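Usage

Read records sequentially. Each one opens with the input sequence:
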Amino acid sequence: MDDSSLAERQGVLRIPADRADLAEAAEAGGGTVDDGGGQADDVPGEDEVTVARVGPTGIAALDPLVSATSGGGTAFYANADPDLVTEIAADLVEGSVGVVGEPLAVAGHALGPATFPLAPATPLGVGNRRVLGGAGWHRPAEPADHDAAGGFVDATLEDVVSGADGLQGRGWGDWCQDADVTPALDRARDAFGEAAVVVNAHGVGMEAGHSGDGTDRSTADAFLLESVPFAVLEGADLLATAVDAERVVVYVSEADETAVERVRTAGENYPDPVTPFEVVTGPAVHRATEPTMALEAIEGNHRLEARLRRPGELPTLDGTPALVHTARTVAHLGRRVRAEDVGGHTATRLVTVSGDVEAPATVELSETASLDAALDAVSLADEFKAAAVGGRFGGLTDSLDVSCSPSSLAAGGLGTEGAVEVLGEDRCLVEFVGRRAQLAADTNCGRCVPCREGATQLTELLRDIYDGDYDEDGIAELLRVMDGSSVCAFGVEAARPARTAMEEFDAEFDAHAEGRCPAGACFEPAEVPQ
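and closes with the structure output:
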């Protein structure tokens, strides 16, 4: 590595990589754009201000966020426009920060911070920024920034095995979801150099409107590829080192075009990988995230169907045993191998908050922290009524006073996907659950009866409530069958919204059977005779 990392610069103005207008404005103020990858002569001089195009921070409400660093201080500016950026750049050229405009915060730190400095009392200060240390701070295509933050460790097989010990898979796209990854790693090592490593960064989240349908959005795994791709690729490369992998595949939804572009560029710039990285896209449908259906997509199969899981065996990619882990999992592995997340450090989880909020946010919380801490990173669009915790088919709850650990979430019937969808006071939960059941009926792979027919029957039973027929016992039995007999996690998770809503909000179901909607969203009010 050379000395071209941003940590080596005296003055740095960081702007979002997707805002060319802000880069032009910064140049107008005296800055010099440097996206990395250039020759030594192209690097801004010691006395020049570097304008760096960085990945997103995860806090959408602050976009575009601009930060100005000089010496031991950084000023953060939220929702910056081009005129302000020109002023900030000119201020930085003079060697000062935080003088112009109204900065969100001015943080003090050591010289040349290689990761995002602490900005307390702001959304940027919520939780920890360990895996997210480079988000909004590093250039996605420049390996020198990741290297300056301690990346690209020269690890042995023993280092990787030690780092993986106790690490749990993150997300339903991980073959080892909420389970220790070590047994799978041991099986892959027994393949004697014929294993593949698959980074499953596919995910179709949902930014739901009041209808409960909503629009698709990127998930935390795609966010990591967009903002800190080297953190993900390093974890994949470490796994490849441990199993002497013949292939390393990064699998992404075709809808996440920015993530695809950035991880491809980062893969090309990655220093001496064990094997070249392949980036493969899959259809932008929820079921394509499930590990075996992800493998089907990578193999080029047009019809995605879940495969049976055989105890004690790894899935296969084109006949080769494969380790399938999410981007979150391998990014955490990289930190653990560098001995940054072991010993006295509590494990962390990425949590994405969406739904009835002004703008979504992705934060990193300790597993011992309460989920409601994530709400400090967003502004609610309505009074809090409930939340769906655990992704598209998350469990419903009226309280987020539960820790982020998988065991605590599972004990409360909630999902562990790391997603919190806030539902405001005027949301009808019966309608919300019904639409999610319909979604499951429309988008399952069709292979197994419990999921295929169960989702359809569930949708019909929920519709019957509006006609006054609330068959609580019948719905509960159907959910039990879906949960216990579905081939893959899709059918298991599809049962969760209805089950948890009936447990936590049973009065709303009773009211609908009586022709009343407590939220006032489903039934027209009766006309009062004059």
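Summary fields computed downstream for this record:
- The chain has four domains: 6-120, 157-337, 348-424, 429-513.
- The longest strand covers residues 348-355.
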